[in-house]
Amino acid sequence: xxxxxxxxxxxxxxxxxxxxxxxxxxxxxxxxxxxxxxxxxxxxxxxxxxxxxxxxxxxxxxxxxxxxxxxxxxxxxxxxxxxxxxxxxxxxxxxxx
Length: 97
Hints:
Blueprint: E1 12-17, H1 19-31, E2 36-51, E3 55-72, H2 73-86, E4 91-96
Antiparallel strand pairs: 1-4, 2-3
């Protein structure tokens, strides 16, 4: 749940890294030692808004909504190592978007 905002806002976002993404990205990310990994996050779906005077309202999120995020390589390595130690097949990281 996000607080009200107009035009833009900032929130912490849990980004799942599914098994197929991990398999494809692991080989590439593993050789990176520092810097950032450029990510393009695409959004679609339904947004629920608590409005006045009608209460809860639903609105479709347009298909062209996206944000760019530069994931520090250090964060990916820390997450991958933690998930491997925990025996997890997939993982996720938290990003501010």
